[in-house]
Write a structure and sequence with these properties.
37% of the residues lie in helices and 20% in strands. It has 361 residues and is α/β, with parallel strands linked by helices. A hairpin with a 5-residue loop joins strand 12 and strand 13. Helix 4 runs parallel beside helix 5 (127-143). The radius of gyration is 20 Å and the shape is globular. It starts with a helix and ends in a 13-residue tail after the last helix. Mean pLDDT is 93; it is low at 357-361.
Length: 361
């Protein structure tokens, strides 16, 4: 819907070229993602790809789009660091965030502002989400804190009771990394178990979004978050975007809408720079690398590894005028994936904090 809104705003035309949008559903399965990508490239002959939710799907697609020389902008939650650090493809861009960006800022903020010194991590046992958890753990310990407990339930867990019962009651924060229905169940059961209000719940990059927040309801109130886009961000550019999105779809935009809107804007800016000649792939890619835009979430550009440099918003879930909403407390400007370190030195660091997750085995 975010992509459609952008295209309607430009009357389905970019730099004098008509735009056709072809949409496929990966069903959050890696094999389906690759099959649908092949269909889009070989049958529909698309000239650019936008989307993908899972890290594993993006990893599977990466070699294929490189072989086919098809530009691909990740606008979903494919956060695996390797996508924009190891064997970087000139055809792959990420406009959302990586596993080390949002969690790093969340960890530093929690350490400073909540005076948290010990943490329990509970994360779904899948590659992208465990990387997010590890991004928090690494930054939290670098700040001076200590992760004293790690819990990795499998994806699709219905009853988190046994896991919640095992959480240490002497920790300063519980860091939750889950998405979708798993996040909804965990947050609700966290309240049912009587943990809400006793140990602050921190989400460094997964559940705090309008795709899940309404289902969590008041159970989420009081949780802290870090996120790349928050619909309550009080800026003229974002207010305009939220108003337009609400007018068209009858609801506020979540981050998937904002990220896909941003991807369309980046494609448009690149096309304007080369006179609309998207068939000239090398020039189009070079123009994408130079994109620098003010968008609803703030300033957006790419580093030399084609990973986004943008703001990170830290806040708390509150009930405002009867609605449960994310409220921004602080915006950290121009966050990049290496945290100020030399890329070569950063990449040498151990990627995982521990190897307890079954995926790591």
């Amino acid at each position: 819907d975010g992509g459609r809104l952008y295209l309607e705003e430009v009357k389905w035309e970019m730099s004098g070229r008509k735009v056709q949008l072809v949409v496929e559903d990966s069903a959050t399965r890696v094999d389906v993602s690759l099959t649908k990508t092949r269909k889009l490239v070989e049958a529909d002959r698309v000239q650019a790809l936008v989307g993908v939710v899972l890290s594993a799907s993006a990893i599977a697609i990466k070699d294929y789009i490189t072989e086919k020389k098809t530009p691909f902008i990740i606008s979903g939650f494919a956060v695996a660091e390797a996508l924009t650090m190891e064997k970087v493809s000139p055809y792959l861009f990420r406009i959302t965030y990586g596993a080390n960006t949002l969690p790093r800022e969340s960890a530093k903020w929690v350490y400073r502002n909540l005076n948290a010194r010990t943490a329990t991590i509970i994360a779904s046992d899948t590659v992208g989400i465990v990387e997010l958890a590890m991004g928090f753990a690494r930054a939290f310990e670098e700040a001076g804190g200590k992760v004293v407990q790690e819990i990795y339930p499998p994806l699709g867990t219905a009853d988190y009771g046994p896991y919640l019962a095992g959480i240490r009651r002497d920790v300063d924060v519980v860091v939750e990394c889950m998405a979708g229905a798993d996040a909804v169940r965990l947050v609700r059961q966290y309240q049912e178990f009587g943990l809400k209000g006793k140990i602050p719940l921190v989400d460094p990059a997964t559940f705090i979004d309008l795709t899940t927040l309404p289902a969590m309801g008041e159970a989420a109130v009081g949780a802290y978050f870090s996120w790349g886009y928050v619909h309550t961000l009080d800026t003229p550019r974002n207010r305009k975007f939220v108003q337009a999105f609400h007018a068209k779809f009858g609801r506020a935009p979540g981050s998937p809408a904002a990220y896909t809107y941003d991807a369309m804007a980046a494609i448009h800016a690149a096309l304007n720079a080369i006179g609309g000649k998207i068939e000239d792939t090398p020039r189009f890619l070079d123009a994408l690398r130079k994109v620098d835009l003010e968008l609803p979430r703030g300033r957006v550009r790419f580093d030399r590894f084609q990973h986004v440099v943008s703001d990170v918003h830290v806040g708390r879930i509150e009930k405002v005028e009867g609605k449960v909403v994310p409220v921004v407390i602080q915006s950290v400007r121009a966050v990049e994936q290496f945290g100020g370190m030399d890329p070569k030195e950063y990449i040498k660091r151990p990627r995982l904090f521990t190897l307890k997750g079954s995926f790591a085995k």
